[in-house]
Amino acid sequence: MNLENINFIKSANQVSQFPEDSGREIAFVGRSNAGKSTALNAIFRRKNIAKTSKTPGRTQLVNFFSVDDDCRVVDLPGYGFAAVSKEKRKQWDKLISDYFRTRDALKGVFLIIDSRRMITKLDHLFLDFYLPLGKSLHVILNKADKLKKFEKIEAQRNTETSLGNFATIQLFSGTKKQGVRVAKQRLGEIFGYK
Ligand code: GDP
Predict the structure, then answer these.
(1) What is the DSSP string of 88-151?
(2) For a tag site, which of 113, 149, 162, 179 has the least CB within 10 Å?
(3) Predicted TM-score of the model (pTM)
(4) How many angstroms is it from 52 CA to the middle of ligand 1?
(5) Closest Cα to atom 20, ligand 1: which residue?
(6) What is the pLDDT of residue 57?
């Protein structure tokens, strides 16, 4: 599979705007500021495949990209903007939960975590919701360039302890482009390529 062959399809802010629910999809999820956009840009080697909207409260969209024939990558709005209104947060929560509840094409999630902060309460809320769906999960422990060697080992081990039964886990650095090969391999596996 050629992961450089990625093209923007569309943005959606409601379910009716999603592309047809066919083929295979992998969604990128994470707490805002964990480095999801940087990770997407590193993996797909395109500058600004994921544009970062750093303005809290701005409408957050679900962005769909096509990869190869019938595969898509989906950039979901980051959760956890501190300065967002309750109303707006409710809208996002609904959009994201609608996406997960209805989307047959969804084969797996890449969860981006800031390895210095590890799994936060909001990540747990997401996982409580997502894991019962029984789909694949790959955890990216991002910003590993900020960790000392023993901290990396600890981060990987702690995540294995809590999520090892449900997920594959890797250390990663979006800015240093470390771990890209492993991430690509895992994408291919979840998409079902041998
Ligand atoms: P998003 O909100 O999850 O899309 O996060 P961004 O990709 O916009 O990144 C948030 C901040 O973290 C930015 O200042 C990035 O430069 C920084 N960042 C992202 N990935 C890494 C990484 O691997 N290492 C370091 N040191 N900083 C990173």
Answers:
(1) HHHHHHHHHHHHHHH-TTEEEEEEEEETTT-S-HHHHHHHHHHGGG--EEEEEEE-GGGS-HHH
(2) 149
(3) 0.93
(4) 10
(5) 35
(6) 47
